[in-house]
Amino acid sequence: MRFSELSLSLCALLVAGPSSVASFYLPGVAPTNYQLGDRVPLTVNRLTPSQSEQDTQVRSVFAFDYYHHAFHHCEPEGGPKQKSESLGSILFGDRIQTSPLELHMGKNESCKAVCGKQTFQPRDAKFVNARILQNYNVNWNIDGLPAAQKMIDANEAIFYSPGFALGQVHGTDTQTPVLNNHYNIFVEYHQASQDHYRVVGVLVEPASSIDSKLLDDGKVECGDIAHPVILSEKDATEIVWTYSVYWVPSPTSFATRWDKYLHVYDPRIHWVSLTISALIVVALVGMVSTILIRTLRKDIARYNRLDDLGLDDFGGTSLDDTVQEDSGWKLVHGDVFRPPRYPMVLSILVGNGAQLFMMTGFTIAFALLGFLSPSNRGSLTTVMVMLYTFFGAVGGYISARVYKFFHGESWKQNIAYTPLLVPGTVFAVFFLLNLFVWARQSSGAVPFTTMLALVSIWFLISVPLSVGGSWLGFRAAESTPPVRTNQIPRQIPPSTGYLRPLPSMLLVGILPFGAIFLELYFIISSIWFSRIYYMFGFLFLCYGLMIVTSAAVTILMVYFALCAENYHWQWRAFFTSGASAIYVFLYAMLYWVRALSFTSWTSGVLYLGYSALISALWFVLTGTIGFVATWAFVYRIYGSLKID
After folding, report:
1. Which residues of 250-315 form beta strands (DSSP E)?
2. CA distances from 301 to 118, 319, 485, 560, 641 (A)
3. Which of 239, 235, 177 lies closest to 214, judged by CA?
4. What stretches in the chain show pLDDT beneath 70?
5. DSSP code of residue 98
6. What residues does each domain of the chain span?
């Protein structure tokens, strides 16, 4: 598909309206029917940093286990049991366990004790107070739904935000942390049929009272919220964990129960951004089409006409000089397919970029079609890992084809390095960053068994598939260049102005970044603010606009370089297209300054490390898009020339 056709198709989707980009989801799990009095399981998850109405910044990136000893949460009889989780859920830090809280369908409970008194020593109090000041949230799940707080966005739209506050901060000057030790649980249920009920929503309103106490008869008396729990960092503090349960009938069906949680923040901003990006793409593609179609057709026709006439000297001017008056790209036909420096590295990066490209595209498509239901925790990450694994065959094949085209001779090294170099670097960085998480005793640290599972998937599935793809690539017929390569390299005039490497990278990189920067904001927010990202319709369009923009501007820049008689287009195409990663990293740093305020240097190291890692992968992905598009373009235009 031509750039113009693809860009017009994307614009047509924009004009079609919100329904075109509103992704949907399949329920993902079969509904559980309860009868009146049946026990409804409540499981607990990690405690995560978040923001509050008073403080909109995130101050930590570390999650903690719900049963961390410092929190003194009541454990179920016999100890908490770990629930089975998906690979993606574990990688994102979920640690789901059983709890002692008892909920029975349709049975309201008022002021019930979770367990006996709990004593906070000064050391534990200091730890918990620090987490309260950092706006940590408690995360529960009831029948697969997260316990949430009711929130109102800037447009006064009501939605459910997963998690509820560990505590509150009283006062503006002194900022006294207050621990929530009472939970009002509102469970919304829908009657599916006679005597069958389903959970369709969960809200928790936490409160605090130091006056709560256990009575001699085993009952509990909830105290006045006017006297909150303030944990002393000098003396021991005793508290009682209590909760109340209220069952609320709801017309919401099971199939749509997630709609309250999947909130699109201000869709008008998305539409404005997409419209601007689409207009930029149309203008850009129009410019590229005008230059490349009109100019190139004219140049090629003129060159071929003169070549057919056999005019070595046309009016006292040589053929090369005649053509050079219009453009110099034809003068380098004998050098344009000369192998670049380090063809091994370039082919490996392009192969891994193709693997990332396929993984990203299919993941977004699956999410857009509703196959990645939010009820299946970690399904998005699991699918990404598995798709990257299986697309190892694509990475190996593309790497082999590129390396073979550049007349590489060390084919064994190419086969070995393609599945090892980039994934190995990513895994090494991930492992080092995980050490920081482990050192902070965070529940977000990936367990050793999960690391072992990742390595097993890598070496037992991805590497063999990559080797098989490389074998097919080297076995396939070689793509011969359309023109012969001269034995003596042509001298390259010095580059000036925007054609120098750094200016060209900065100019080209900003346009693909402009197509995705808004969605990048919401993706970063969902990661560090522990939100559910669900705007895959917008993300799909942004991804398409980014592909078209990266290809178009890279082709344009390489065309200008060829006209300046610079035939080293291979690495130039990769670096200029991948330069949008520079802006992605700078944007992540700006987000740090504007939305994050870490209270420990380890949080900063973790954020910086993951931002650099994601930016590096983005560089490989977008660099591959620009390289492949430019490769096809160069092959096409020089294949149109008639050269003896």
Report:
1. 313-314
2. 87, 13, 22, 19, 8
3. 239
4. 1-29, 53-54, 172-174, 217-218, 265-266, 292, 295-296, 298-327, 642-644
5. E
6. 38-263, 268-300+325-483+499-640
List of residues 6+ apart from 454 with CB closer than 8 A: 87, 385, 427
What is the predicted pLDDT for the residue at 187? 97
The tokens of 448 are what?
A: 């050793």
Residue 281 CB-half CA count within 13 A: 33
Q: Is the dihedral of CA 322, 326, 328, 331 positive or negative?
A: negative
The torsion of the CA quartet 356, 359, 361, 362, rounded to 10 degrees, works out to: 170
Q: What is the DSSP letter of 433?
A: H
The whole-number pLDDT of residue 642 equals 66
Q: Where are the beta strands (DSSP E) in 388-531?
A: none
Output the pLDDT for position 295. 66
Nearest to 493 by CA among 629, 636, 328: 328
On the 0-12 / 13-18 / 19+ scale of CB atoms within 10 A, 28 is middle
Opening angle at CA 116, ends 149 and 99, nearest 5: 45
Residue (of 564, 605, 531) closest to 332 by Cα position: 564
User: Which residue has tokens 């621990």?
Assistant: 179
Identify whether the C-beta of residue 271 lies closer than 8 Å to the C-beta of residue 165: no
Question: For residues 131 and 601, what is the distance between their CA atoms, to the nearest angstrom?
Answer: 16
CA distance linking residue 556 with residue 549, whole number of Å: 11
Which among 52, 50, 57 is positioned nearest to 594, based on CA atoms? 57
Q: Give the CA dihedral 214, 215, 220, 225, nearest 10 degrees.
A: -70
191, 106, 186: which is closest to 140 by C-alpha? Answer: 186
pLDDT of residue 52: 73
Pick the closest to residue 239 from 385, 73, 370 (CA basis): 73
What is the CA 195 to chain-centroid distance, rounded?
A: 43
**Separation of alpha carbons 354 and 387, rounded Å:** 12
Q: pLDDT (tens digit, 9 = 90+) per residue, 209-242?
A: 998 888 776 678 888 887 899 999 999 999 999 9
